[in-house]
Amino acid sequence: MKRCSWAKHPLEIEYHDHEWCKPNFDERYLFEMLVLESAQAGLSWLTILQKRAFYRKAFHNFDVNKIYDMQVADALKVDGIVKNKLKIEAVIHNAKLIVDHNISLSKTMWDYTDGKVLKAVHQSQTPLSNQISKDLKKMGFKFVGPTIIYSYMQAIGMIDDHEASCELCKREAI
Known about the structure:
Order of helices and strands: HHHHHHHHH
Structural class: mainly alpha
Number of strands: 0
Strand content: under 5%
């Protein structure tokens, strides 16, 4: 099967084939991807994929209600995650924000595209990712810069960013 050029390692191939650029509306999954994309800042996606199971353990399988009562020290006890206190604080902060304000990541994100998948632009950020980043920051979210948000949009399927040569590239994306 022809895939995007970045999908080389078995974990990348699995992610590419079954998750990346596939529309997802599940709240827990959307929070997981927000956490993982934020964790990736300054690192490779493969590094984060290799640590994904540890993140699931550290953050209660991304249940925002369970994360709500966590302390940074709780997450730091779990071997295998990136031990960046600012990123861990952001996870807990963002979970509290979602719970306290009853925020739906699915509605928040997908309203930007009316639930439709956008065409690939193959960039690290776009005017839309810039706008979403600004809006999320106004809401109080942390670690949601425009590059992280663009990657997040790919991860949750808001953008079909498969390369033209990839068999998973969807020409019908709008």
